[in-house]
């Protein structure tokens, strides 16, 4: 750029030079591998002692709220892509289904015709909980072992699919059931960490937070006026964060357009 250039020409050259990093950024975004949703947060929600129901819309709506509020694992602008957003919804439903389907086979090792299986077939609560959290970021701790102990206690009584509902009726007796489970099943030769991992703690806090509104209707995941109002607020806050991230680019475009017009007028005059 020469100092002898007219001001309009210098501004036009600055604009062209400014487009170069933007083009490089576009290439980086295009080169990013296709996004695939993670089921880590689904596992943390389903295994949380704060969750009020294993099935239905409550766990799904909790996870929707987590994604809307904190954008976990969510790429920029995914809410504007119907195909990718549908993938998020499908992934949430599939993740919960898979996690629930993984539990009965593990619990079945300890039951035989609604009775306790032989001791040789038992898994202690630590080993059973390890199976539950396999391939997730959740870690074994006392509260989680207590929740799994509740599942096992109720599975012995009710091995039909409805045992998930039955298990929730005992949710306040976690530590007592855990103590009894350790004395009944397997060998009590292990130590259970009494601390909660960061991921689980974050999810527990989110579930407990007053800002999360859940819907108990089983007919429509996104039904109900209160939920729609909450989702609209979450959507507004989420988009506001996205807009702030891209604000610099928008401001540049607003400034660049007048400069380009001035340059074109100068060229026409010449």
Folded structure, characterized:
It is built from eleven helices and two strands; from the N terminus they run ααααββααααααα. The protein has helices at residues 7-31, 40-46, 57-70, 82-108, 125-132, 142-157, 163-168, 174-184, 198-208, 225-245, 247-269, and strands at 111-112, 115-116. Residues 210-230 and 246-253 have low confidence and may be disordered. It folds into two domains: 7-32 and 245-269; 40-223, no CATH class. Helices cover 63% and strands 1% of the residues. With 270 residues, it is mostly helical. A hairpin with a 2-residue loop joins strand 1 (111-112) and strand 2. It is elongated. Strands 1-2 form a two-stranded antiparallel ribbon.
Helix and strand arrangement:
Layout: H1 7-31, H2 40-46, H3 57-70, H4 82-108, E1 111-112, E2 115-116, H5 125-132, H6 142-157, H7 163-168, H8 174-184, H9 198-208, H10 225-245, H11 247-269
Antiparallel strand pairs: 1-2
Helix pairs in contact: 1-11, 2-3, 3-4, 3-10, 5-6, 6-8
């Amino acid at each position: 750029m020469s100092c002898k250039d007219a001001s309009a020409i210098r501004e036009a050259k600055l604009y062209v030079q400014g487009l170069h990093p933007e083009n490089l950024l576009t290439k980086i975004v295009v080169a990013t591998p296709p996004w695939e949703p993670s089921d880590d947060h689904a596992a943390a929600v389903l295994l949380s002692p704060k969750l009020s129901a294993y099935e239905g819309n409550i766990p799904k709506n909790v996870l929707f709220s987590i994604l809307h509020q904190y954008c976990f694992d969510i790429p920029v602008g995914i809410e504007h892509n119907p195909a990718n957003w549908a993938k998020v919804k499908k992934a949430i439903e599939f993740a919960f289904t898979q996690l629930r389907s993984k539990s009965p086979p593990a619990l079945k090792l300890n039951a035989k015709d609604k009775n306790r299986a032989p001791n040789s077939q038992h898994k202690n609560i630590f080993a059973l909980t390890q199976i539950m959290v396999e391939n997730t970021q959740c870690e074994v701790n006392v509260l989680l072992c207590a929740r799994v102990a509740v599942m096992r206690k109720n599975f012995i009584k009710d091995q039909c699919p409805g045992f998930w509902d039955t298990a929730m009726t005992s949710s306040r007796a976690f530590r007592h059931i855990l103590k009894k489970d350790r004395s009944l099943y397997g060998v009590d030769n292990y130590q259970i960490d009494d601390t909660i991992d960061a991921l689980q703690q974050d999810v527990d806090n989110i579930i407990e937070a007053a800002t999360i509104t859940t819907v108990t209707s089983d007919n429509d995941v996104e039904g109900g006026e209160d939920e729609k109002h909450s989702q609209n607020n979450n959507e507004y806050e989420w988009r506001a964060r996205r807009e702030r991230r891209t604000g610099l680019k928008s401001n540049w475009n607003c400034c660049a357009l007048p400069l380009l017009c001035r340059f074109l007028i100068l060229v026409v005059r010449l």
